[in-house]
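[Meeting: bench + compute handoff]

Bench side (C.D.) handed over the final construct sequence. Compute side (W.E.) agreed to return the predicted structure before the next meeting so the bench team could plan truncations. Sequence as handed over:
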Amino acid sequence: MPDTGKTIPQTPDRPATKTVGKTGRIARTLVAVLLGTGLCWQISAAGVAALAARSSDPHLLAATGSAAHPQAGAIMAQSLLAAGQRAPAAALARSIVLVDPTNDRAMRVLGLATEALGQRDHGAAIMRQAAALGWRDTPTQLWVLRDAVMRDDYVTVIQRADALARRNRSGELTQPLFRAAVTEPHLRGALADSLGDQPMWRGAFFADIRQNLPATSTAGMEALFRDMKARGQMIGPIEWLSYAERLIDLGQFQRARQVWASAFNIPASRLSTSPYDGNFARAAVRPNDAPTSRFEWVFNPDLAMTFADAPGGSSLTIPTDVAGGTPLASQVVILLAGEHTLTARIDGSPSAAAAGWTITCLPSKQVLPRRLARGASDELSSVTFDVPSDGCGAQQLALLTRDRLDAQSVTIGDIRVR
């Protein structure tokens, strides 16, 4: 298991006052809009659906819409509020609260209706009473979240989002909020505290970072890692890779490689040649389920790879019974613009092997033309290609199978790019 206690090198800090102010406003605006929309949707959808599920009989609805039936009456009050009938909703909810002061739904409807009637301070006070009744009423929690954002109550923002995420509620709102917290220093500290409790949503958070972290939030993400380290938290290999792989997707190849190498303690001597682990010494003994960076050899998970002992490491066996065009192994490298030659040691006849190299530029995904020094039948042992200066900040070396009727088994190792 790699040591993930390494702290990645810091990038130059930007002026604090400008960053905090700008990101704070952006975070508050984003979260307020999201939570405002979500709150309205929750009230309308939950209320109407719950009411319709009980009955559409107007006489029954009239009977249940009273303080004599607190639970049904609270649902009726919620429906009235969703329909825009604020005064009747407030009156019904108030009568229910008088009978059942622990009815969080009725208390919430009364607070929202009072706010909607223009009594904002009074409505907010009622909503805080509703919040004090518990953490399980989702619309109330969303209101508390929005209110906390507007008051810059960062701890409450993360605490309430944490509570919703732990109950798997409103993920479409909490995930953007957590992403926004990455770039807001005060929210980021509270987020680091919550992550330290190992919540069940921690994995989902890093999966979301892997897919959706904006390019403008990378400095904030590295600051979050530093905050977590300062609190004595361990950062798992998948969590490091979630960020490093996102940097690759964003085209920040050099930084991605630095993050990977630092987090996994890769010595500089091993990074001085391309590709990394060209003799498969580490890849051959790596567990199949080990977290793997694209800067290492990535093997086809649907194929059982076999290796043979070789000087200085191992050699990968090229199968003969796999359909052409199937990827066997790949690795992302960072080469300078200009001419390069990939060479490999082949045990067996390279002209009879059912595989060949493909080199693709990243991020442009342009497949580079190859020059084969030993003829078209040998795509393994020596391949020359030119890296352009534009759109090719990194390159993917991919070993793909070829359709060949007379294929013979060979092994490949000692791969180098000069």
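W.E. noted at the follow-up: DSSP finds 15 helices and ten strands in the chain. C.D. will use this when planning the next construct.
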